Amino acid sequence: MTKKTKLKLAVLATLLIGWNAKADEGMWLPSLIAQRIADMQEKGFRLDAEDIYSINEASLKDAVVLFGRGCTGELISPEGLLLTNHHCGYSQIQQHSSVEHDYLRDGFWAMSREEELPNKGLSVSFLERMEDVTDLILNGYTPDMTEDERVAIVKKNSKALIAEATKEGNGLRATVEALYYGNQYFLFLYRQYDDVRLVGAPPSSIGKFGGDTDNWMWPRHTGDFSMFRIYADKDNNPAPYSKDNVPYRPKKYFHISTKGVQEGDFTFIYGFPGRTQEYLHSEGVRYIEETSDPHKIHLRTVRLDIMNRHQAESQKVRIQYSSKNANVANAWKKWQGEVKGIKKMKTVQTKQEFEAAFAKWAKGGEFDGVTDRLAAIYAELEPYQFATDYYTETVRTIEIANFAMSIARLFIQEDSLVTFDNAKASELAESFYKDWYLPIDKESFTAVMNEYEKNVPAEFKPAYYKEKLAEYGSVEAWAEDMFTSSLFTDPAKTASLSPADKERVMSDPATVFFNEFLKWYYADILPVTTRLNQELQLVYRDYMRGQMAYCRPQRIPKAFYPDANLTLRVAYGHIKGYSPADGTYYLPSSTIKGIMEKDNPDIFDYNIPQRLRDIYATKDYGRWSDASGEVPVCFIATNHTTGGNSGSPVINADGDLIGLNFDRVWEGTMSDIVFDPEICRNIALDIRYVLFTIDKIGEADYLFDEMTFTE
Ligand code: ARG
Ligand code: ASP
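Above: the input entities. Below: the structure tokens describing the complete assembly.
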């Protein structure tokens, strides 16, 4: 590394240390938490930095896992018992469900270890350690190099470092992640366990209570949890599923506090937030607020209307599209809250003012012209990004075209020895046709492609598309043809495919549709967006340091923490209500009373199990009621969280578990871009409602024997 880079990094380090953030904003690196611990303690935390993260001693980090592809889970017993959200374990619960055993509808409780259900493809990862490796990763890099050269060096050095770090094998897995746009690099070393079994899940009428109606909303009453158990070999090491495996013995597990929560209590969330963009230039935010989010919302409204209409008409279709609908609706609803939040915060204007002052300050120095360069790149990028957004939210959502392409891929493997594989094809076909309803896909094609036609400028449409549309005369006629003549509309035809059918599959209208757009995207769009995003990356690297260098000496109260990137983080705050609108104040906790107020057998999202009604009528709450005599259900707090934090432990001042994170309030969903401490709240499940449900609904209170309660 050159002297100059070294100096830059040293400056960065001093800028980061001891810099006080605005209240409760921030997702902090566990290994650097000593820099925040005084603030945490001042806000009520009673443990030390070493209790949170230590490489020598067992610490809380050893009780937290990355669950599956994008959730968090935590250990709650010395025998590998793990808690996460219902929506995080959803696909596993669904996989084990059938008409005879509908675990989604009825819930599932293993009454012994033998009854716990293995899950192919599910793994959890513990963070062994994390480490600043900036010097090693940039070894060989000099500032006169191009970004391409830098990327190549980073890649090469990362590969070597990862190989070295994981050479012991034994489930070790490592990644190198760029922080602050590549001003810093960290190595994350994980140990991954692949035998993870389902232990319990409440019925969806509890675990998904409120459904998409209540999603992203407060007040909330969702019992969003499920339980798993990690298994290991006899030496406690990772091992693929085997009936000889034994429950994993964690270095650390959470003790559970049933004392309850009060407004003002300190809370701390330990988990894997996925993605935030807190340091964007105003033009990046403006594009999201004015263009990208509104268009994506509209396109999804169109698709959801079609799904909802058909789902309301048929029980079968309702089930087929329940998970698809939930996925489409989740981001759709979030983006609406996000746009409102950005508008209300006047984020674009605030950022413009900041940038103007910054530019003035930067004149003649290292950061001169940085904000203008960002604006210029955004101007060039925007039409390409718009074309990409439309492509992803229209063409790529056509189910039959996606399926056609997945079958086509079986014919066009690079390796010429691979011939078409019937078994693989029938596997794909089985899972596709089970949940596919042609009228929805066809109407959706017509609707989104009409939007595409209307809103995407001609120079950003592939020639193939223009020719086809001219040939058919209308999107409707095109849809009519595709959904009649494609062989993929007929499961029997798909089932009879053989290696000789390559030509037929490749020239099928659904395959051609997908493939032609794909080729165009790879040729005309992706190279440009890749190049411009790389340029952005490069300038943001300076702008990031520039923002720190500008803010700190002038005591501008701006929090600096690396954007979320699905690495382990600490967020801390306190339990607190909020005012979503003039004249309204939301209390910070909800109870079972609210479930009964929403209860309605005629509304799917609000139809609770009869058992819960009976319990409520007789107030048979066992030990799980609070001072008011009701069972607490959810609470909100000021912790800064995002997607991926689902399932994260909510921890109290003594390091004990008081809840399970699962969502955010709608008015605060702009927190991925701008955090408002007045409005942004995470939503957690009160641990007492989890215990109540295990006990009174699941009658699986034998699980309590392995847990540790602090009072
Ligand atoms: N909004 C939460 C998150 O982003 C929960 C999503 C699952 N629930 C649902 N009703 N779609 O993951
Ligand atoms: N529901 C999100 C998740 O699944 C959490 C959030 O976005 O607040 O991770």
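Note for the figure: Confidence is low (pLDDT under 50) at residues 17-21.
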